[in-house]
């Protein structure tokens, strides 16, 4: 159904969807076709109640090497403001994330980036918009923008300091240097580093644990809390938590969470 991405399920757990950017001969460099397909696939996964976790990765040796240079050369300046890329306003999502790639934090499901190779430019943007980043020891990272005469695009100037701190963010943006996986781990740019051959197995094992043993309702609420937090005071975050706690205690997943613990059996969460 897709030309430049693929969507599959984990062989061990149908609740885990794997979205793969699939232009391996171009290190999965982004095109308009891939961009549209990626958004369509991610939003479809969010609507599908059988999917509880999404893993985003790249085919071959790269994660995503940024925008395809052939398309970048002819990119019209107005494209960055084009209305069709913005997510329509949804009262269940924060207006702060009505941006081109705001559908990542707007999803109810956690998105784990399995970064198997180069993540540069927009590839790094996709990784930062994900909830967690697991990297191969062969992965490398670069903002790339300054070396193309561009600027910190798509909110990366807001995201990056919150992930690695202002000093590291300035370094990565100004120099656009290549950062190896181990350095990325030390600065907090990624959460885990695995040997290349083990990356997908490790990422899927983590994703499958979330899908099998954790309430999808709880994760959806917690994800909304985490992405709302940068815009809240402590009081506002607490008020939001109190309101959500009131609802969670009345949910099916809370009843099941207590029952499976008392009965010493695997959980059967419904997500309601």
Automatic annotation (TrEMBL):
Single GO term (MF)? enoyl-CoA hydratase activity
The protein's Enzyme Commission number: 4.2.1.17
Say which enzyme class the record assigns. lyase
Among InterPro entries, the record links this protein to: ClpP/crotonase-like_dom_sf, Enoyl-CoA_hydra/iso
**Which residue windows are transmembrane per the record?**
110-129
Could you tell me the keywords of this UniProt record?
Answer: Lyase, Membrane, Transmembrane, Transmembrane helix
The superkingdom listed in its UniProt entry is: Bacteria
The molecule here is called Enoyl-CoA hydratase echA12
Q: Which organism is it from?
A: Cupriavidus numazuensis
What does UniProt list as this organism's lineage? Bacteria, Pseudomonadati, Pseudomonadota, Betaproteobacteria, Burkholderiales
């Amino acid at each position: 159904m897709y030309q430049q991405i693929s969507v599959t399920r984990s062989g061990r757990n149908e609740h885990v969807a794997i979205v793969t950017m699939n232009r391996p001969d171009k290190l999965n460099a982004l095109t308009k076709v891939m961009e549209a397909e990626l958004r369509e696939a991610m939003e479809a996964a969010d609507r599908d109640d059988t999917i509880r976790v999404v893993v985003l990765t790249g085919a071959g040796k790269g994660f995503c090497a940024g925008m395809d240079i052939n398309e970048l050369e002819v990119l019209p300046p107005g494209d960055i403001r084009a209305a069709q890329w913005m997510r329509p306003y949804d009262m269940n999502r924060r207006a702060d994330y009505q941006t081109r790639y705001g559908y990542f934090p707007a999803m109810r499901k956690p998105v784990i980036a399995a970064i198997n190779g180069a993540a540069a430019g927009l590839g790094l943007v996709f990784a930062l918009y994900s909830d967690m980043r697991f990297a191969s020891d062969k992965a490398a990272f670069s903002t790339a923008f300054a070396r193309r005469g561009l600027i910190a695009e798509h909110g990366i100037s807001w995201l990056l300091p919150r992930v690695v701190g202002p000093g590291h963010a300035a370094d990565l943006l100004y120099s656009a240097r290549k950062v190896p996986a181990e350095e990325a781990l030390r600065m907090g740019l990624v959460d885990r580093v695995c040997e290349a051959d083990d990356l997908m197995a490790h990422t899927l094992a983590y994703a499958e644990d979330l899908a099998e043993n954790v309430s999808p309702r709880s994760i959806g609420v917690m994800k909304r809390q985490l992405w709302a937090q940068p815009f809240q005071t402590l009081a506002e975050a607490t008020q939001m938590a109190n309101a959500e706690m009131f609802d969670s205690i009345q949910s099916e997943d809370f009843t099941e969470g207590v029952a499976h613990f008392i009965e010493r059996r695997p959980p059967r969460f419904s997500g309601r």
